[in-house]
Amino acid sequence: MTIATLFIVLFVCMLLGMPIAIALGFSSMLTILLFSNDSLASVALKLYESTSEHYTLLAIPFFILSSAFLSTGGVARRIIDFAMDSVGHIRGGLAMASVMACMLFAAVSGSSPATVAAIGSIVIVGMIRAGYPQKFAAGVITTSGTLGILIPPSIVMLVYSAATEVSAARMFMAGLIPGLLAGILIMLAIYIVARIKGLPSLPFPGIGKLSISTAKAMGGLMLIVIVLGSIYGGVASPTEASAVACVYAYFIAVFGYRDIGPLKNVAWRNPGEPIVKAIGRNLGYSLLGLLKTPADKEIRAVVRDGAKVSIMLLFIIGNAMLFAHVLTTERIPHMIAENIVGMGLPAWGFLIIVNLLLLAAGNFMEPSAILLIMAPILFPIATQLGIDPIHLGIIMVVNMEIGMLTPPVGLNLFVTSGITGKSIGWVIHACLPWLLLLLGFLILITYVPQVSLFLPEYLDSLRGF
After folding, report:
1. Taking the model in full, what pTM does it have?
2. d(C-alpha 183, C-alpha 446), whole Å
3. Which helix (H) or strand (E) holds 76?
4. Are the C-beta atoms of residues 123 and 161 closer than 8 Å to each other?
């Protein structure tokens, strides 16, 4: 009766259109009132503990704010120029460059919708002008944007780590190879289609232009080295790396590229200006820019937008942790685990159920909410069946990727619809071939665990673990 009440109230609230965070909190409190020996005071305590006792969650607002600075600060445009100069000369190279740009931006933003918005708003129009079909362009970008939650650093991976108490650093390690593999598979599919349909390519720009675009993009790309290098090298935790990333993103957007903030449109060197004078002028402007930063409208808008997203996500996480608390105190995951193990279901059969369950949930719920609800239930079952928790986490993240492309709550679909001005149905149709490719990739990730586990196990062996 407890299980039925908890889940029936949750789904009824969701069907009535109640926000997912409030639905989670309301169903949890109602279940505590009706069936639990816990007092309502435990609700307040659990809501406080949900964020204060999970150090990993502190990385989420930092990564969100760094993503906001980079999305606004022109980093996406420079990454696109670098990708086009790198692979644009290959048949179908403009589409492949778009995928490469999504992969690189994913590694500095950690967000799937942000990747689609930042890259898609620039390259979709460019691909259409170059002679690519509009549906092809929209499908490629919408699908490639899903890599934002698979290529580390990933906010969704941080949520899974908080829900299951597994290492966020190991999750980041495990996500790198699957993320690169997914991007390569999409690019390979583009190349095959381009050869068949005769899609255009760009002329090779030359080593000089490629070097210039690489140098311009390096300011943003260095964030990948700083974050992943410090985590993989054991220098910093994901939370510490996220704080450094936030500060770096601010400086590179405001003082490096100067696309936003008090130094916007201030040239590094004016025509005919001596280098010594330029250095002195920039030092003075930089000091002035630091003092003006708190009052600058654009920077305050970026911080405000990042705070809104962080508060929304952390409010969902707080209520989902309360939901997980009810699950744990009522021993619901343990009862489900005992029943499934008692049925003699093999690990491969359990993974089929996991994928079907997550694919269905991805149609109706936001990825972080799905992980926070399902991970506490699936985690103990997976461990009893001998499935590595890190492997399970990557399977769940790939399912969340696919959920970004499935209606009615596929966030990437809405972003692309807004960019192209087309209906959601049109975008869904554009994504269908690429969705099938991702489903094939999901099968590979599910049943070849070493794709996910090779890098963390290898790095552990280097450290002597």
Report:
1. 0.85
2. 17
3. helix 75-87
4. no
